[in-house]
Amino acid sequence: MIEILKALVLGIIQGLTEFLPVSSSGHLELAKWIMQDDSVAEESMLMTVVLHAATALSTMVIFRKEIGEILQGLWQFVRNFFRYVGGRSLVVNDETWFSLKIILSMIPAVIVGLLFEEQLEALFNKNILLVGLMLILTGLLLFLADRAKNTNKTVSFPAALIIGISQAIAILPGISRSGATISTSVLLGIDRERAARFSFLMVVPLIFGKIAKDILDGAFTESTTDLMPLIVGFIAAFFTGLFACKLMIGLVKSSKLKYFSFYCFAVAIVSIIVYLAT
C-alpha cells in the first residue's frame, strides 16, 4: 500500500510539473528524497519512464488535431519528395514545414541522449543540490521570458534548432523542459501560444522514442517492480497532465511566468539549505 501511495504522489507530481515550468524531473527527485525512496536505479528509472509516457499520452490527447496535421505533413513531404525525384516540382505546405521544424528541434536532445545516456542517468539519484542549482537557472529563464516584449513571430528553422538545444540542456534534473523551451521561444520573439504548443509537441516523439529504445535494449526485462504502483502512477500522471497542459497554455498567453520563477527560486533555496544541513 505504501508503494502505491508513493506512486500516486509521484504520478500527480509528474502530471502537474511536466507542463507547468517547474521541472518534473527535479520534483520527482525531490519527492524520492523526501519519501526516502531507496528503489534500485533500474526500478526508479522504470517509474520515471512510465510517468513520462503518461504525460506524453495526455499531450497527444490535448493536441490530437495538431499531431494529425504533423503526421499528414510528414506523409505529404515523403510523397512529394518521391514525386520530385520522378521529375515533378517539389511542393511543400505549411503542415510539412511545421513537421520538419519539429524534427529539427528533436536532433540536439537525441544526440545528447545517445552520447551521454549513462552519465545522465547517474544524475537521477536524489541529487538535490544539482536540482536546486538548476531550478535557479529555470527561475531566471522564466523571469526573463515573462518580461519579453514583441512576441509575435512564428517558429523559424533557426529558432527550432535553438529551442531544441534548450530542450537538450533541460534533460538535467531541475531544469524545466517546458520552462526552458517556452522561455527560449518567447525570448526569440515567438508568439506565446505558438511557443507553448511547439514546446509540448516537440517532446512527444522523444519520449516514445526513449521508451522504445529502453524496451529494445531490454533495460527493464529483469526488473522485479510490482505492476500496481506503475499503473497507479501512470493513471495519476495522465489525468493531472490533461489538467496541467490546458492550464499552462492559458498561463503562458497571459504572461504569468514570473510567478513560477518565484516558486522555482523558493524550492531551490530550500533544496540547497536541506542539502547543506544533512
Give the gist of this structure.
This protein is mainly α.
How does this model look, in words?
There is one protein chain. This protein is mainly alpha-helical. The protein has one domain. Helices cover 78% and strands 0% of the residues. The protein has helices at residues 2-17, 24-34, 41-62, 64-85, 94-115, 117-123, 128-146, 157-169, 177-187, 192-216, 227-253, 257-277. Helix 3 (41-62) crosses helix 11 (227-253) and helix 5 runs parallel beside helix 8 (157-169). The chain starts with a helix and ends with a helix. The model has no long low-confidence stretch (mean pLDDT 84).
Number of strands: 0
Q: What is the H/E string?
A: HHHHHHHHHHHH
Fraction of residues in β-strands: under 5%
Globular, elongated, flat, extended or rod-shaped: what is the shape?
Answer: globular
Tally of separate helices = 12
- Structural class category: mainly alpha
Catalogue the unreliable spans.
none
* Helix percent band: over 70%
